[in-house]
Write a structure and sequence with these properties.
By secondary structure, the chain is mostly helical. It has a single domain, classed as Orthogonal Bundle (MetI-like fold), CATH 1.10.3720.10. It is built from eleven helices and no strands. It has helices spanning 2-7, 14-52, 62-77, 80-86, 88-95, 101-124, 129-137, 142-153, 155-175, 183-193, 198-226. α2 packs across α10, α5 packs across α6 (101-124) and α10 (183-193) runs antiparallel to α11 (198-226). The chain is elongated and about 65 Å long.
Length: 229
């Protein structure tokens, strides 16, 4: 990396920039990993609830479904950059600060949970309803239907949607740099944009592209492994 930066004209600052890029990549990976984990923990159950309370399913409740769906849609409609600013008081309350990588995880998860919930609901709808009816006719409880029928049958689609979620979080984590969220986005803004170091901007973009490509490759590989249809 140092040799590459030297070839681009970073002679006085090659070591410093390399260190910044490495730290930025680690910070971005940290944000993406935690935000993805938290989003899955809350987003999957939320998506399941949306499905099983919709029309035709065993916990059908039109009023509940419409209210919950409206809240989910409202959160999904807020642009991430606006959401980050709007929930600064909440971020400070939860983590004690509104800047830094840990603080950025709060808006990342709040933005991603409803997004993933809708993806999960869509994935579960790909499971033929006849399988649900067959399980019900054998006296299977709703929780077992969710655990043994819906989630396993929709697993390939779920993995693909988890992959998409990670890619979205990577993009949003870069945007978090605009308000001091840390990571590669912060480096791109402070050095690539504000200090007119175009090379730094290019390198951060390349690293982000590589992260997205790697995520997609891993996601496709896992999907093939779990898809037994």
């Amino acid at each position: 990396m140092v040799d590459f930066l030297l070839s681009l004209g970073f002679t006085p600052y090659a070591s410093k920039i390399t260190s910044l890029l490495v730290d930025g990549t680690i910070d971005t990976a940290y944000m993406v990993f935690l935000a993805t984990a938290i989003s899955i923990i809350f987003g999957v159950p939320l998506g399941v609830i949306l499905l099983v309370t919709s029309k035709g399913y065993f916990w059908e409740s039109p009023v509940f479904y419409n209210v919950l769906g409206t809240i989910v849609n409202a959160l999904r409609s807020i642009p991430f950059i606006i959401l980050m600013v709007a929930i600064i008081p909440l971020t400070k309350f939860l983590v004690g600060t509104s800047i830094g990588t840990t603080a950025a995880i709060v808006p990342l998860t709040i933005s991603t949970i409803p997004f993933l919930a809708r993806l999960v609901e869509t994935s579960l709808r790909t499971v033929p309803y006849g399988l649900v009816e067959a399980a019900q006719s054998m006296g299977t409880s709703p929780f077992k239907i969710i655990k043994k029928v819906l989630l396993p049958e929709a697993l390939p689609e779920l993995v693909q949607n988890f992959t998409l979620t990670v890619i979205v979080i990577i993009g949003c984590s870069a945007m978090a740099g605009t308000i001091g969220g840390g990571g590669l986005g912060d480096i791109a803004i402070r050095y690539g944009y504000q200090r007119f170091q175009v090379e730094v901007m290019i390198i951060t973009v390349v690293v982000l592209i590589l992260m997205v490509q790697l995520t997609q490759v891993v996601g496709d590989f896992i999907t093939k492994k779990v898809d037994h249809r």
